[in-house]
C-alpha cells in the first residue's frame, strides 16, 4: 500500500487549500482513512477521519467547521478541503489508512499506512 498526499502550499490567512490523497494497492472504501498533521517540535495531531461508512466522520476540535473531509470512491481519492486557514494550521499534513477498520480512530497508532506528507504553510 502506498499513499501519496498532495495539494499543500503557501497561502495567506483566510485562504483555502484542498489536499488530496491517492492510494495504490488499496481501496479507501475498505478502510478508515484519516488526516493528521505535525508542526515542528509538536506531536502528530488528529485532523479528520472517515470510516468505511462515510457517515462515520470525525474532526479535530480545532477544526471548528473549517475543514471538510471527503472520499471519492470512484477515483479512490480522499480530500481535505480546508478553508479560513490560520497561521497555526501550518504543518505537514499526512493521510493514513487503517485497512478493514470500520470505525474512525483519532490515534495515529491505529493507522497502518502513511503517506509522505504535504507541507501547508499559512502566512499572517
Short description:
This protein has 124 residues and is mostly beta strands. It has strands at residues 2-6, 9-12, 17-24, 31-38, 45-50, 57-59, 67-72, 77-82, 91-99, 113-114, 118-123. The strands form 2 sheets. Strands 2, 4, 5, 6, 9, 10 and 11 form a 7-stranded mixed β-sheet that branches.
Describe this protein's structure.
The chain is mainly beta. It is built from no helices and eleven strands. The strands form two sheets. Strands 2, 4, 5, 6, 9, 10 and 11 form a seven-stranded mixed sheet that branches. It starts with a strand and ends with a strand.
Estimated share of beta-strand residues? over 45%
User: Low-confidence segments, ≥5 residues, pLDDT <50?
Assistant: none
What's the number of helices? 0
Average pLDDT: 95
Number of beta strands: 11
Distance between the termini: 37 Å
Shape descriptor reads globular
Largest sheet: 7 strands, mixed
- Report the helical percentage: under 10%
Order of helices and strands: EEEEEEEEEEE
> Gyration radius, to the nearest Å?
13 Å
Structural key phrases:
124 residues; mainly beta; 11 strands; four-stranded antiparallel beta sheet; single chain; seven-stranded mixed beta sheet
Helices and strands in order:
Elements lengths: L1 E5 L2 E4 L4 E8 L6 E8 L6 E6 L6 E3 L7 E6 L4 E6 L8 E9 L13 E2 L3 E6 L1
Amino acid at each position: 500500500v502506498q499513499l501519496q498526499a498532495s495539494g499543500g502550499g503557501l497561502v495567506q490567512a483566510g485562504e483555502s487549500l484542498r489536499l488530496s490523497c491517492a492510494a495504490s494497492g488499496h481501496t479507501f472504501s475498505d478502510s478508515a482513512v484519516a488526516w493528521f498533521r505535525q508542526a515542528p517540535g509538536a506531536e502528530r495531531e488528529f485532523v479528520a477521519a472517515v470510516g468505511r461508512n462515510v457517515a462515520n466522520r470525525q474532526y479535530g476540535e480545532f477544526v471548528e467547521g473549517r475543514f471538510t473531509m471527503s472520499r471519492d470512491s470512484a477515483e479512490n481519492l480522499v480530500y481535505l478541503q480546508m478553508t479560513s486557514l490560520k497561521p497555526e494550521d501550518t504543518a505537514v499534513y499526512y493521510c493514513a489508512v487503517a485497512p478493514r477498520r470500520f470505525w474512525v480512530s483519532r490515534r495515529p497508532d491505529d493507522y497502518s499506512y502513511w503517506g509522505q506528507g504535504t507541507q501547508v504553510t499559512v502566512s499572517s
